[in-house]
Structures are given as C-alpha cells and as structure tokens.
Amino acid sequence: MTAYLDESGTHGASAATQVLAGFIATEQGWQAYERDLAALLAQHHVEYFHAIKFRKRQGPFKHFNVATQAIFIHDFFELVHRHLAYGFAVSLTQKDFLGIYRAAKDALPKRFRHDSQYGVCFRFCMSAIQTFMKGQPNECPVTVVLEGGHKNSGDALRVFGDAKAEMERNEKDTTFASMFIETKKNSLPLAAADALAHSLFRSKSTGILIPGVKRSSGVVMDDVVPRSAFREASEPPRIQHFSLNAEQLAAVVQMYIEHETRP
Fold this sequence. Notes:
Elements lengths: L1 E7 L8 E9 L1 H17 L7 H6 L9 H18 L2 E8 H8 L15 H18 L7 E6 L5 H18 L5 E7 L6 H18 L6 E4 L22 E5 L2 H16 L2
Parallel strand pairs: 1-4, 3-7, 4-5, 6-7
Antiparallel strand pairs: 1-2, 2-3
C-alpha cells in the first residue's frame, strides 16, 4: 500500500494552525483513482490540481465559475471515497506547539533533538497509518510519498528514518517500507492529500465544515493511536481528523522525558 501526504498552514507565523493530511490505498486503488481523476481533469480542461488555485479559481482553474467549481469538487471527492481506503489528518496550533512542546526543552537532555511543528504532525500521521494497517486482514509494507518543497520536509525524512528503525528494533514492526518526495504536477495521488489538507486548514481558520470528516478528540498519546479511535475502512466517513490539544502534547513531552531518562 502507499500513503500520499501533503501539508497546509506552513507559510510562516501568520498561520495559526498547521495541518498534515493524506490518504492510503492499495496499488490498484491508486491506479483507479489516477485513471478517473485524469478523466475528470480532462473533462474540465484542467492540467493539474492545486487546492489553493482551485479555491481562488486561478491558474488551471481560471476558466471556472462558482457552479463549475461546485460540480468539480463534488466529483473529485466522489473519486476519493470510491477508490481510497482511508484518509487521515493531523492539526496542531502554533500556540500549543511553542507553549507546550518547545517550552519543555529544559526538561530534556541537551542532546535531544526536538521535532519541528511539521515533524510533530508527521510523526502522528505515521502513527495513524500504523494503526490502520494493524487492523487490515493482510498486513503489508507501506510506502510513504510526501509533497516536497516545504522547508521541513527533510525533518520528515529524519522522523521517518528514526521511527522506522525504532519500530523494527523494539517491535519487529515492518509497517513502513520506504519514503519518497514528489511534486503535485508529477503525482496525481497528491491531489487528494492537497485537497484534504487545505480544506481542513480552511475549516480550522474559518469554521467551514468538511463533509465526510469525523473529528476525533479522544486520542491517547502512546506509541500508536488506539484502534478505538478509528472506524472500519469500509464504513463512511473514511476520513479521520486528529486535532492535537494541549493535554496530548503534554503527554508526548512526558513520554519523551521518560524515554530519554530511563537507565
């Protein structure tokens, strides 16, 4: 299986919330999605999908009007629900990240390397993927594809390598196979992640509700997100949103302290 992830809200201090989101599906699911999305784009004379440009009706969407926009996004998410197994999103406010996570630096050894805000979100996305895969009848390695260009994408590569090594060393977990960086123009599957991340970022900023998104607040901070926080992939809605709050971040910090100070 392959998971494609994209981000939103990473454009500096002006963004109150950062979001990292993605979808996971089998090779056959992604192939069907790409085929149908390519047909949808061709039908509307669009070269590629970019969420911000779509919302503003710019670039490849400059010929759209409000009605065309509504029809397109309806059909777009129909493809997502038809072909993709599971969607996930993690959001984290800059206030909580700085005030709780980064503020705990004095409690940790100087050698400890803090994740960026982007890295924290990515670590939780990996946890969501891991938990989803454990609930599948046939476990198989997952390849992670991340949209490139963000200044902290290298941090995600580090987090991926560290987490993968830790899982294999302590749990003999083989959930993750490898990770790659791609661009939206070269990867149709990233369009789904882009749409979800941007839509969720907009909802966090404006209060707009996203159809099909189940918000989840009962996430216990541990090595993985508990299975009880998920619904079966065959049951709509298939998109799970984890909004990290102050209590959960404090639990993460405490977990790191216990890990770093154990004999």
